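yo

u said u wanted the structure for the complex thing, so here. seqs first:
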Amino acid sequence: MLIRPATRADDGAIAPILLPVVRAGETYALERDLSERDALAFWHSPGHSVFVAEVAGEVLGSYFLRANKRGGGSHVANCGYIVAGHATGRGIARAMAQHSFDRARAAGFRAMQFNFVIATNRRAVALWLGLGFEQVGRLPGAFDHPALGEVDALVLYRRL
Amino acid sequence: MLIRPATRADDGAIAPILLPVVRAGETYALERDLSERDALAFWHSPGHSVFVAEVAGEVLGSYFLRANKRGGGSHVANCGYIVAGHATGRGIARAMAQHSFDRARAAGFRAMQFNFVIATNRRAVALWLGLGFEQVGRLPGAFDHPALGEVDALVLYRRL
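structre next:
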């Protein structure tokens, strides 16, 4: 697996991974009807460093790394990760996570925070807890899940 | 006290309240050397509804109201409040808070979340807990305080 910085030339490979995640609306707090253009604009937001994970030349995942806050909060990183639906269970998210920890450390970040992990996204929660994240907050009913209604979101935190 | 929507004509009154808060760097996660223009641009960010509190025609406080998250998180509001240094202890923050709850409810928000209340800001923490907020998270060392170094930030949540 090769994990490398993305360019806008990768958008054609990122979009078919990102769009189903947006349309499902079960894991990211984004409008489900976001256009492809706006979804990619979010992924490449100012301040985001975007990476892709490829296997045998095929992009199967992507993540962004950014400062979670400005000023006095800028020593804490934040990331978002997506994996192609047909490529789950192959360790791609885990590999991107490890890569993001290294990149974040190299950029001088001292911790990483996930602000809004949907509690029903059990696969993700288990992965992050297994990778050393601590649950430092639980936001009651903060996410309106398309099938389940209001569910909790978790705040996860990890020293780097 | 009159609390009313702000216009850009209020910037001249908001700036002398906002700038000292930014320069102190003890309560907001913003660059301490932010220009007046950029500080006001932050206060009036897209999606922010900005209000001012005035007493006898003098603006003594301001707050913004926005959706805390997009998509499935857009039923939760977020606010930021500032009070002029010479006007603290006069109930202005409390009055703006009550006003913001009403405005948020009227706009259809079902809860309000403060993402990053600096734990050393005891006056603010006491005010919010007294107004029905619950501490739902504690972010260890997530704020680099200019005098105290890494201090915790709190996540507060309140149903509306």
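The longest helix of chain A spans residues 92-106. The CA atoms of residues 111 and 160 of chain A lie 5 Å apart.
cya
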